[in-house]
Design brief:
Layout (H helix, E strand, L loop, with lengths): L4 E10 L2 E11 L4 E6 L5 H8 L7 E6 L2 E4 L5 H11 L2 E4 L11 H11 L5 H14 L15 H14 L4 E5 L7 H16 L3 E5 L3 H7 L2 E6 L2 E6 L1 H6 L4 H9 L5
Parallel strand pairs: 3-8, 3-9, 6-7, 7-8
Antiparallel strand pairs: 1-2, 1-4, 4-5, 9-10
Helix pairs in contact: 3-4, 3-5, 4-5, 5-6
Length: 252
């Protein structure tokens, strides 16, 4: 089965700062890849480059058959980017919910405005996904009436209602109080069990250890180590990986 994500020789600059350096990797359908590393290593920028929320300067990104050469411009190129974004769902550190909309209205806004789905179908799909994340009874609640964990679960339901082929998670629990982290990880676990392809930037080593097929350690915009969890945590090959794990009090 061919990869669902293919990235070749990806580079990204912010002015003179070289943030991503010649990155290439593939992700298979149903695979879960966790990206970890110190702050400033390029993890979140890489994730945002996969769906062109940040525009890579060089390289090629292909997701589920939509192939884009970076550095392009013009109407046809922007249409390609739009097509690629329809293949991906993204969940951010901050929840980014519309404060003036209910949970259900937040969830169905994208399918109606972007995919031109009729409202009846969007509501049915939105309620299905709110129920899946355990918030079917909060459909009419506004974000201000929801806890941080509930808001993040609404954000996951919103991404799922776009019916993506790939889910991208950018440190989805980092803005949550510790007691709320588990409810978001439980939703992510369910998506893993259902076979969703996922690329996740995370500091949750327990999630990475249990559910990742591969873990990527990044440092200074490069891939330092790529390994399955057992090898990554028990026998890391690179000294930078070992130092990072030791700072987390994780010893091989």
């Amino acid at each position: 089965m061919p990869p669902i994500i293919q990235v070749s020789h990806l580079d990204k600059y912010f002015d003179n700062l070289h943030v991503l350096r010649d990155l290439s990797f593939e992700v298979a359908p149903r695979e879960v890849v966790c990206i970890i590393g110190r702050s400033g290593s390029g993890k979140s920028t890489l994730l945002r480059c996969l769906n062109f929320l940040e525009t890579p300067d060089f390289g090629v990104v292909e997701i589920d058959g939509v192939r884009i050469e970076c550095g392009g411009a013009g109407r046809a190129w922007r249409k390609q980017v739009h097509g690629l974004r329809l293949k991906t769902g993204m969940v951010f550190q901050s929840f980014n919910l519309f404060a003036h909309m209910t949970a259900l209205e937040n969830v169905i806004e994208g399918p109606i405005t972007v995919k031109k789905m009729d409202r009846v179908s969007a509501v049915a799909l939105g309620m299905h996904n709110l129920t899946k994340v355990g918030l079917g009874n909060k459909a009419d609640a506004y974000p201000s009436r929801l806890s941080g964990g509930q808001q993040q679960r609404v954000a996951i339901a919103r991404a799922m209602t776009m019916q993506p082929q790939v889910m991208l998670f950018d440190e989805p629990t980092s803005a949550l109080d510790p007691e709320l982290v588990g409810e978001v990880l439980a939703v992510m676990q369910r998506l893993v069990e259902e076979g969703m392809t996922m690329v996740t930037v995370t500091h949750e080593m327990s999630f990475a250890r249990r559910f990742a097929d591969r873990i990527i350690y990044m440092d200074e915009g490069r891939f330092v180590e790529i390994a399955p969890p057992d090898q990554f945590f028990a026998a890391p090959r690179d000294e930078r990986t070992r130092q990072f794990l030791s700072h987390l009090h994780i010893t091989p």
